[in-house]
Amino acid sequence: MALLCAAPVPRPVVDAARHLQDAGHAAVLVGGAVRDVLMGLPASDWDLASSATPDEVMALFPKTIPTGVQHGTVTVMVRGGGQTHPVEITTFRGEGEYVDGRRPTSVRFHRHLIEDLARRDFTLNAFAWDPIARRFSDPFDGLADLRQGLLRAVGVPLQRFREDGLRTMRAVRFCATRNLQLEVSTEAAIPDALDVLAKVSRERVHTELHKLLGSPVPSQGLHPMWRTGIWPHALVPLPTDEDYAQAIAAVDRMAPDPTARMARLLWPLGREGDAAARIEACIDALKPSRAERATVLALTGSAARALQIARTPIEIRRAVAQLGVEHLPAALDVLGFDDTRREAVRDAIEGATLSVGALAIKGGELIAEGVVPKGPAVRSLLAGLLDDVLVDPGLDTRERLLQRARERMA
Predict the structure, then answer these.
(1) Is residue 45 part of a domain?
(2) Which residues partner with 150 through β-bridges?
(3) What is the rounded CA–CA span in Å between residue 15 and residue 46?
(4) pTM to 2 decimal places
């Protein structure tokens, strides 16, 4: 295992493993870090699994934090290089019944590594590496799956998915982020576990979807999302199979912006009368940040649709002004504009004023000049002046706007 031997495992992690082993306990690196090293990817989260119980771990190290002691996890503080480094150690464990589709009702501690690896989700996450003895463990033949580019569940796929509903979303996310294909029996088990996915919080689903959409080739995960029926549990169903195919193909061509890609997946809903309400309900259910919510709604809203059909410079400027210049690059991606259409947009807005705040005259100046009294009329007048400038960008000087404002108020 040349890759694992050469892996940059942090010294405090190795020291913690050696300390555990010197005390007679097994201590190995498990999970994602080992997987990523074998895939030639940068690895992080160098966590240890051990046969030592939480009490035994806390007795061995002078400074510890009971991070998740009920689940067998203790963070130990290891000195090195003049600093103290946190290292997470989790006891080999098995799990009781899953009731809420996410967490086991109980945890059983084990002394043997294979019993710990048997509870993991996919064979690629069931690797273990002993950094002291330099010994690799792969009891479920995950290395063979890795070579074939397959994502396979450990043991009985349906059992794994029904234990934790989020594993179905994790499966398609791994396919996208690690360029994998779902193994046949693993994919076939997903539809019968979707009722468990429905119990999972939408925030957790959103996290997985966001990672998937930020991957180099999101279609690797979106196609199985569609095939297995996961899609309606994360996003709104699209009107036709053609809409699915076109939307999935489109996001692969876009810049790796998860928010813009999500907007593109929702774009086909615009043909339906209640599109805005359905898109808003879908986004709100995922509990995104305010910025992400605003961006998706802008990229799927009336301004983006106006930009899609705009042809003249005036139409383009009006659409961009309504959309907001900050959303324009993503909107061009969502709309799939080619170089010719992009150049037309650039030409139309070059040097143009596209917001009230950028006008050469301000509301306070109009009030001071006696053109308009304080109140809502100021905002209405400025909006009218902006529209005049969108038609004729040359109007945007203080003198000409002042004159135009007097004409409008007259």
Answers:
(1) yes
(2) 181
(3) 12
(4) 0.89
Average pLDDT (194-209) is: 96
Helix, strand, or coil here: 265? helix
Q: Which domain holds residue 13?
A: 2-147
Same domain as 130, residue 28: yes
State how far the Cα of 34 lies from the Cα of 28, in Å rounded to an integer: 10
For 317-371, the pLDDT digits (tens) are 999 999 999 999 999 999 999 999 999 999 999 999 999 999 999 999 999 999 8
- Phi-psi map region of 43: left, alpha, beta (phi>0 left; psi -120 to 50 alpha): beta
201: left (phi over 0), alpha (psi -120 to 50) or beta: beta
Pick from 329, 330, 300, 305: nearest CA to 318: 305
CATH number at residue 275: 1.10.3090.10
CA-CA distance, 319 to 306, in Å (whole number)? 6
What does the pLDDT look like over 181-200, one tens digit per residue?
999 999 999 999 999 999 99
Q: Examine the domain organization and report whether 126 and 96 are in the same domain.
A: yes
**What are the tokens at 96?**
């009781």
Token representation of residue 278: 């359905």
Which strands sit side by side in the sheet containing 64-68, from one edge to the other? Answer: 64-68, 73-80, 83-91, 48-50, 27-30, 128-130, 135-137
Give SS3 for 387.
helix
